[in-house]
């Protein structure tokens, strides 16, 4: 019953930590943090496996590194789109 809300909360926290590690600011705040957190968890586990502690299915260290990469990619893409429009 609480699995989805807890996963979303963890994704938000991971996304915000990933955002804090980069010098860019993620646009869309909570929604973008959820996307960055989920994408970061997937990207981090794909790149680094299940390294370190796992919380509710999220390998924390790879998810945070992956979220930082996702935030970097999302902000670079948004700057590129803003420049072309």
Automatic annotation (TrEMBL):
Transmembrane segments: 6-22, 29-48, 60-82
GO cellular component, one term: plasma membrane
Coiled-coil regions listed: none
Membrane topology: Multi-pass membrane protein
Main location: membrane
Keywords tagged on the record: Cell membrane, Membrane, Transmembrane, Transmembrane helix
Cellular compartment(s): Cell membrane
Family note: Belongs to the UPF0410 family.
Name of protein: Transglycosylase
Source organism (scientific name): Paenibacillus yonginensis
């Amino acid at each position: 019953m609480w699995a989805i809300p807890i996963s979303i909360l963890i994704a938000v926290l991971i996304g915000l930590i990933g955002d804090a590690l980069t010098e860019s600011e993620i646009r869309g705040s909570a929604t973008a943090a959820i996307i960055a957190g989920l994408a970061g968890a997937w990207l981090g586990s794909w790149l680094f496996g299940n390294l370190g502690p796992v919380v509710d299915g999220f390998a924390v260290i790879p998810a945070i590194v992956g979220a930082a990469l996702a935030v970097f990619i999302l902000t670079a893409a948004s700057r590129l789109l803003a420049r072309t429009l």
